[in-house]
Amino acid sequence: MSLTLAIIKPDAVGSGKAGKVLAHLEGAGFTVRAARMLSLSKAQAGAFYAVHKGRPFYDELVEFMTSGPVFPMVLEADDAVPLLRETIGATDPAEAAEGTVRKLYAESKGRNAIHASDSDENARQEIAFFFSEHERLGTGRS
Ligand code: IDP
Ligand code: MG
Description:
Layout: E1 2-8, H1 10-14, H2 18-27, E2 31-35, H3 42-48, H4 58-65, E3 71-77, H5 80-88, H6 101-105, E4 114-116, H7 120-130, H8 133-136
Antiparallel strand pairs: 1-3, 1-4, 2-3
Bound molecules: inosine-5'-diphosphate and magnesium ion.
Inosine-5'-diphosphate binds next to α4.
């Protein structure tokens, strides 16, 4: 079993689709190991997407990701990273396969409902961005 990070983005949370997206992910075989809802600051969104700094869509992406609450979660499955990428579909919903999260719920290439880590190393970093070790393990009672 391995872990990956998904973020239900502000478009899907704002249109009341978070539950449907979560049900879709569970139906695809993922177990939710941690989840929270929060609003990102510009600095946080910029840091999370630092790899895209300088791209033409970067400012729009930071603006979008700070436009409302996001719902990051840690998901577990066999080969979680590639399975989640397959489950969410292509970045642009116009190119996403039938039955994928983005085909079903994304509005556009920018407002595309969900984020997924693209490698095991990035998954580790992105999980640590949102969740402490005890939250991830579900042992956070004090
Ligand atoms: P991914 O989310 O499928 O991994 P990336 O290329 O890593 O796609 O881009 C990160 C995010 O930036 C996308 O999910 C989307 O929200 C946004 N984005 C990427 N390309 C474009 C674009 O051409 N126009 C507008 N937004 C874009
Ligand atoms: Mg990406």
